[in-house]
Design a protein that fits this description.
By secondary structure, the chain is of the alpha+beta class. The protein folds into two domains: 91 residues, no CATH class; 108 residues, no CATH class. The protein is 49% helix and 17% strand. It contains eight helices and five strands, in the order H-H-H-H-H-E-H-E-H-H-E-E-E. Strands 1-2-3-4-5 form a five-stranded mixed sheet. Strand 4 and strand 5 form a beta hairpin. The radius of gyration is 22 Å and the shape is elongated. The termini are far apart.
Length: 207
């Protein structure tokens, strides 16, 4: 693989998500017409941009630059690694969050959105994490978990209703905060409220 392919493959995630500059886009277009290897990688990125591809892209970028560390421009190469990995991760962050309220006979859309807003408020404090989706766990499950939610209630508080959501998210690309690095998690969130009260977030974690 020559140096031009290295540069093009580093740009491909930005190119596929259409967030690179016009000059970079034209350079990639020209190269893809002549290089079948880079073109195949581009097609794969278009077909599958899930966490497996992101992991492969991260590993490939790190390995390419690790070899370059033998040269004299160590600091410049390290900076390029950080910038490129950040670009790959930020590109994944522009994908919209999927919210699935499902069908509920006990909660209105507004009531569920109020609960989701509290979840997002807490999640947004987890720096570097990428939210993929939030979905309602269903009326039956939420009713069943009311008893559990009341075991978490402060003294003197009895909750009248509970609501449970499933969340899919990715941890920071370099880990931290108790998370594995660049790992996909699927957690449940438990919220409850007293009669005529407001939702409160009680706990979250592995279902």
């Amino acid at each position: 693989m020559d140096k031009k392919c290295d540069i093009i493959q580093d740009l491909l995630p930005l190119y596929v998500d259409e967030v690179c500059s016009q000059a970079s886009k034209e350079m990639v277009n020209e190269h893809l017409q002549m290089c079948s290897q880079c073109n195949n990688i581009c097609q794969q990125l278009r077909l599958d941009t899930n966490e497996e591809i992101l992991n492969e892209e991260k590993t490939g970028i790190v390995e390419r630059y690790r070899r370059k560390l033998k040269g004299k421009r160590i600091r410049a190469v390290l900076l390029a690694v950080i910038i490129t990995l950040a670009a790959v991760f930020l590109c994944s962050n522009i994908r919209p969050v999927v919210i699935d309220l499902g069908i509920s006979e006990i909660y209105s859309e507004q009531e569920m959105n109020d609960a989701i807003d509290l979840i997002k408020e807490e999640f947004n404090s987890w720096h570097g994490c990428k939210l993929y989706s939030i979905s309602y766990a269903g009326d039956d499950y939420s009713r069943k978990e009311l008893e559990y939610c009341n075991t978490l209630a402060p003294d003197g508080i009895t909750y009248a209703e509970a609501i449970v959501f499933r969340m899919s998210f990715r941890s920071p690309i370099f880990g931290g905060g108790g998370f594995n690095s660049n790992f996909r998690y699927d957690w449940s969130w438990y919220l409850a409220r007293t009669e005529n009260g407001e939702w409160v977030v009680l706990t979250w974690g592995v279902p």
